[in-house]
Structure formats: structure tokens, C-alpha cells
Amino acid sequence: MSARYHRHTLIDGFSQERLAATRLAVVGAGAIGNEAVKNLVLLGVGHIDLHDFDRAEIHNLTRSIFLRESDVGTEKAVAVAQRAAEVDPNVTVTPLCGDVWDTLTLARLEACDALVCCVDNFETRLRLNQLCLIAGVDLINAAIDSRHATVEVFPLSQPGAACYECHLPESAYARMARRYSCGGLRRLAWRENIVPTTAITASMAGALAASAALRLGEGPSATGRRIFCDTRAGTTTVAALARRETCVACSAFSRPALRLPAANRWDSPLRDLAGALDGDIAVRLSDPIITGYRCARCGPPPDAAQVMLVRARDFDERIARCGACGQPTVRVDIRDRFRLSELMELFGERPLPARHVLAHIGGDMVCIDLLAAGEAGDARAAPPSTREDAP
Amino acid sequence: MTAELRLTVRTADQTRRADITVDPASTGADVIQGAVENWALPRDADYTLVNTTTGQVLAPADLLARGTVREGDVLEVQPVLVAG
Fold first, then answer.
1. Of A73, A144, A363, B71, which sees the most CB atoms within 10 A?
2. B6 φ, ψ to 5°?
3. Structural contact between residues A34 and A80, judged by C-beta atoms closer than 8 angstroms
């Protein structure tokens, strides 16, 4: 090990070699993401996959140690990765720009020792929780406001661990539901509540998250925990997070899902699975899709072919207004649960607009990974907005 | 089973604190709702409950009688943070 890390070698039990061999996913290159990456790079972690879809804005500069005025307009993940490489060129920070739902394949996640969630909304936190449950990868959830910082550790690599949704109150789901019309389409008028934050709470969360992700000073444990800090009063509460048997997210997972890589089309193993089970199993798509689209006055609207069997999140409530009569009389049906045989009948040879399919078979959760083909060069796993530049 | 539980509830910043008596058939969500209403806590936030005596996060839907809360315990109402 180089002289750079000499002081670390003086710490009892500190293994620089173990850190150098560690690979982490950090999702969100905002205030906490900057601080988490800063700590991980200074510690000499081997590899960081940094995911963010956003570009730097001037107001980010009060909380983002790696961003400069010259970075405004630049993809945050790229700017942070470049500056991080200047701090320690031994650390590889790979920027992944785009929606993390597209950039974070299960294979990429499984290669990581933990995922550090530094995003700013419930929906992405729920999605990352689901991916970590499927992959059996530890989830570190970090969040802040202007006064408090919280870091939650969900050791999902261990059986029986609590997940992010085990203790999420109903009110959080109700808040998420307000973003959508009763039909399930995104509301145009929705404005995200802006929560003010500071460098103080961000640095606290980033430090605790980095420490938790590296399990500094501890070994593997199935006990989840929450650290909650009040940065003004200087108080900290540490509490255990127990798994809730009725949790909507993790109760179906007795262990990480059995992952079956598949091309994003109806060939093996989906076809084999359907044949073996007579197609008679309930499956859940990772992405709700539009299965019905009909104006009550005119019948199918003119753009029906472009809308039917497409991911619902690619549209908003404007499609409920008929392109022929101009009235908001279009009924849009959105579903994510099907019988496998029904799904095959609906799509025929067409590719599924989803990243994975989940099915509960013989006591195991099976995940048919439709992005797996992308790892062998399929364009689906590398959308145009995704850039992967090792600095 | 005890007819009632005497507990202490406080906010995370510890500026609000109250000794309360609750029916063990109450849930964590009931305690949170009472705190939000009586202390006028911001309604644009979500909250969870932590038993600081035992060091356990309480699931909002769980009954206090489930053995997670005992006489004299101190419960802390913590906001669910979401910003990053």
C-alpha cells in the first residue's frame, strides 16, 4: 500500500486492502452523494459506481463539495467523478448518467458490496429497496432536512433483515399517490415539495453512510438500524429496525431472488418457464404498462398504437384527453400484475417494456432479468442518456 | 394485560415532551397522530416512532400491546427524511 494511506494503517483493525477491494453503488450525486463519495474516496475505496440523472445547478454549490460554478449545466455524476479522481486516482469512480432504473442493472448491483441511497424522493428509494431485495445487496439509506440527518442500514445480504418499507408509514404512500391521477398517470400540475438542506446535515449523513457501507469496525449482521441526528442539539438516537412479517415489499423474499437472465423478448428462459408451468403463474412486471386506452365517445384514440402496451411512466395525464374529440374522456388501464400466459398472449413476439418480471414459484422469488441481455451488448441496457466514462 | 400504559412522548429535537396514558390497543400511528395534532407538527412531513428505552423502531401499524412498549418507556416521534 502506498504512503498515502499510512495513517490508516495505524488504526487497529483497519484494512486498506479490504477497502481497495470494495465496490459500492452510490445513487444520487447531490448534497449527500457528494459527501459520501468524498469520504469513500479519501478512505481509498476501490470502485464507486455513481448514478445520477441530473445536471448541476447553481443552487447545488452550497452543499456539493465536488461541484464548481464551471460545472453548472454539466451532468452531476460526470463532474463529481472527475473531481473525485483528482483527490485519489487510485479510486475508480464510474459515472452513470440517466434514470437509475435504466442504468443500474441487477448484474451491476450484484457486483457491489452495498448500495448507498442518496436520492431526494420516496419513489426512487422504494425502487432501490426492491432492487437490493432482489439482488441481496445491503442498502444504506441516507436522508436529510435542514436540521436532521438520518442513515438507515438494511443488511439485505443477510436473511431476516428489515427493508426500507418495513417501517414506512402509510402517509408516505399517500404522499406518493398524490403525484398520480386516479388512473395512475403522472399529474402535470404536481410540484415536488422543496426541502431545504445544508452542508452540515449533508456532511453528517455522508460520513455516517460511508461508515455504514464499509461496516467500519463491525462484521456482517442481520440487524438493521437507524441513526438519527439532530445537528443543532447535537443529539443522536440509534434504534434497531426489525423485519415486519407483513411488509408489502420484503415479506415475499425469504432470500435473494433466483435471477434468470433473459433477452428482452419471448425466448428462454421465459418461454421454457411458461411451458413447464403451462403459463399458469401470476407474475409482476417491474414497470406498470398501459393495457387499455379507449375514448368513451370515439373508441380508440388516433395515437392508440403508440400508447398501448407501453410503460405508463413514459406518459402523463395528458393522454387521458382524446386526440380526436379533444375531451378528457379516455379511459386508461394500467397494470403490472398478469398471468404469464396472458402476458405472452398480449405481447406475442414484441419485447416487454420492463426491466424484470417477478414470480413466486415453489417458495422462491424468481426474477427474470430482462436487462441481462444488455450486459452482452443489447442497446436496451444503454439508453442514449446513459454514459459510462471511467475518468 | 395492563389496562393502560403510561408513557413519555417527545419530539426528535426534544423541544416537546409529554407524559401520556394510552390504551395498549393503540398503535404507533395513533401516538404519532396525537403528537402531530397536539403539538402542531408540520403536516407536510411523515413520522415514525422510536422506543428510545428499548432502542427499537416501532412499526406504525403495530399495536403498542405487542410487547414493543412497556410502562414508563420513552417514545420519540421522528420525521421521515427524504431529501438528499
1. A144
2. -100, 125
3. yes
Q: What percent of chain A has pLDDT over 70?
A: 90
Q: What domains are there in chain B, each with its CATH number?
A: 5-79 (3.10.20.90)
State the Cα–Cα distance between residues A322 and A304, nearest whole angstrom.
10
The CATH-assigned architecture of domain A3-241 is 3-Layer(aba) Sandwich (3.40)
Q: Which of A126, A171, A175, A200 to mutate to test the interface with B (most CBs of B within 10 A)?
A: A171
Which segments within chain A are labelled E, that is strand? 23-27, 47-52, 92-97, 114-117, 138-144, 148-154, 224-230, 235-241, 258-261, 282-295, 330-339, 356-361, 364-369
pTM of the model: 0.92
pLDDT at A376 over 60: no
By CB atoms closer than 10 A (0-12, 13-18, 19+), residue A93 is buried
Contact A171 B47 (CB under 8 A): yes
Q: Is B51 in the A-facing interface, judged by CB distances under 8 Å?
A: yes
If you average pLDDT over residues A166-177, what whole number do you get? 93
Instruction: Provide the residue ranges of all domains of chain A, joining segments of one domain with +.
Output: 3-241, 265-370
Check: CB of residue B52 under 8 Å from CB of residue B76: yes
**What tens digit of pLDDT does each residue of A256-293 get?**
888 888 765 555 666 676 666 666 789 999 999 999 99
d(CA A34, CA A118): 9
